[in-house]
């Protein structure tokens, strides 16, 4: 049975009651701010969720209060444990089939471990606060080929291209020196070479959606939510349903 936190619990090394409680309270109240900026109706949605995402992403990209709208949480899970891990990444491409992110797929990266455990499912969560909008994506991951990844790799700053070679992402390091030494070694290896091949352990992963949700914050937490679910029986291939907030 769960119970309320014990005020005698130690928080941050001190005996304290709840160290954080209703932190979004404004104006001396404990009440969270209301979402009042917009609303979402079924009639505003197009039949293809990727096209709908592109419209919402454009609104976020045009909004000066939404810097880096491409910032997204990628969640993956390992088999057979089911243990979930989530981390921020950047969306780098949207195409007709899905959302592409770039990362390290070596032995130590958590997302790589989850993918190679045989679990191809992933989720992406975007939050555009100034627009009071969330977009959720659930789908299967598919690795881009080296040739496809090379196209994006080539536009990265040289330091980032070197870094991709040098970093065994999420491996324990003895100290910062160890990383810097690896960077020097890679710089030496590619000295005088403009074109650097993309490492085989680094590249793009496309999340191909099977479900997507568009969420617009509303007053009193009575938000507007619409979920697209892949369904070949429906014209356009996607079923669209309003969800309770
Ligand atoms: C804003 C932000 C953007 C990030 N973008 C990426 C990214 O595009 N690709 C990436 O591999 N890691 C990115 N990272 C680092 C990841 O959050 C994470 O530390 C790294 O991918 C290792 O995670 P893993 O071991 O769970 O795979 C980003 C971190 C932040 C804070």
Automatic annotation (TrEMBL):
<comment type="pathway">
    <text>Cofactor metabolism; pyridoxal 5'-phosphate salvage; pyridoxal 5'-phosphate from pyridoxine 5'-phosphate: step 1/1.</text>
</comment>
<feature type="coiled-coil region">
    <location>
        <begin position="169"/>
        <end position="196"/>
    </location>
</feature>
<dbReference type="GO" id="GO:0008615">
    <property type="term" value="P:pyridoxine biosynthetic process"/>
</dbReference>
<dbReference type="GO" id="GO:0010181">
    <property type="term" value="F:FMN binding"/>
</dbReference>
<keyword id="KW-0285">Flavoprotein</keyword>
<dbReference type="GO" id="GO:0004733">
    <property type="term" value="F:pyridoxamine phosphate oxidase activity"/>
</dbReference>
<dbReference type="InterPro" id="IPR012349">
    <property type="entry name" value="Split_barrel_FMN-bd"/>
</dbReference>
<keyword id="KW-0288">FMN</keyword>
<dbReference type="InterPro" id="IPR019740">
    <property type="entry name" value="Pyridox_Oxase_CS"/>
</dbReference>
<dbReference type="Pfam" id="PF10590">
    <property type="entry name" value="PNP_phzG_C"/>
</dbReference>
<dbReference type="Pfam" id="PF01243">
    <property type="entry name" value="PNPOx_N"/>
</dbReference>
<protein>
    <recommendedName>
        <fullName>pyridoxal 5'-phosphate synthase</fullName>
        <ecNumber>1.4.3.5</ecNumber>
    </recommendedName>
</protein>
<dbReference type="InterPro" id="IPR019576">
    <property type="entry name" value="Pyridoxamine_oxidase_dimer_C"/>
</dbReference>
<dbReference type="InterPro" id="IPR011576">
    <property type="entry name" value="Pyridox_Oxase_N"/>
</dbReference>
<keyword id="KW-0560">Oxidoreductase</keyword>
<keyword id="KW-0175">Coiled coil</keyword>
<feature type="domain" description="Pyridoxine 5'-phosphate oxidase dimerisation C-terminal">
    <location>
        <begin position="202"/>
        <end position="245"/>
    </location>
</feature>
<feature type="domain" description="Pyridoxamine 5'-phosphate oxidase N-terminal">
    <location>
        <begin position="67"/>
        <end position="187"/>
    </location>
</feature>
<comment type="pathway">
    <text>Cofactor metabolism; pyridoxal 5'-phosphate salvage; pyridoxal 5'-phosphate from pyridoxamine 5'-phosphate: step 1/1.</text>
</comment>
<dbReference type="InterPro" id="IPR000659">
    <property type="entry name" value="Pyridox_Oxase"/>
</dbReference>
């Amino acid at each position: 049975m769960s119970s309320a936190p014990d005020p005698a619990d130690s928080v941050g090394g001190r005996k304290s009651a709840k160290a954080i409680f209703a932190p979004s309270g404004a104006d001396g109240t404990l009440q969270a701010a209301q979402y009042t900026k917009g609303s979402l109706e079924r009639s505003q949605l197009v039949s293809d969720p990727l096209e709908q995402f592109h419209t919402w992403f454009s609104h976020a990209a045009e909004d000066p209060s939404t810097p880096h709208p491409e910032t997204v949480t990628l969640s993956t899970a390992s088999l057979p444990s089911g243990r979930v891990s989530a981390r921020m990444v950047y969306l780098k491409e949207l195409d007709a089939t899905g959302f592409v992110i770039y990362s390290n797929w070596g032995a130590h990266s958590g997302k790589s471990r989850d993918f190679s455990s045989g679990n191809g499912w992933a989720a992406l969560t975007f939050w555009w606060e100034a627009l009071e909008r969330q977009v959720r994506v659930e789908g299967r991951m598919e690795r881009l080929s080296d040739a496809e990844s090379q196209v994006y790799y080539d536009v990265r700053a040289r330091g980032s291209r070197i870094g991709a070679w040098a970093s065994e992402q999420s491996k324990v390091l003895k100290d910062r020196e160890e990383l810097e030494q690896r960077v020097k070694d890679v710089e030496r290896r590619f000295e005088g070479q403009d074109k650097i091949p993309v490492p085989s352990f680094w590249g793009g992963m496309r999340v191909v959606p099977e479900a997507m949700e568009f969420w617009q914050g509303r007053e009193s937490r009575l938000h507007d939510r619409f979920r697209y679910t892949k369904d070949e029986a429906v014209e356009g291939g996607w079923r669209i349903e309003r969800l309770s907030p």
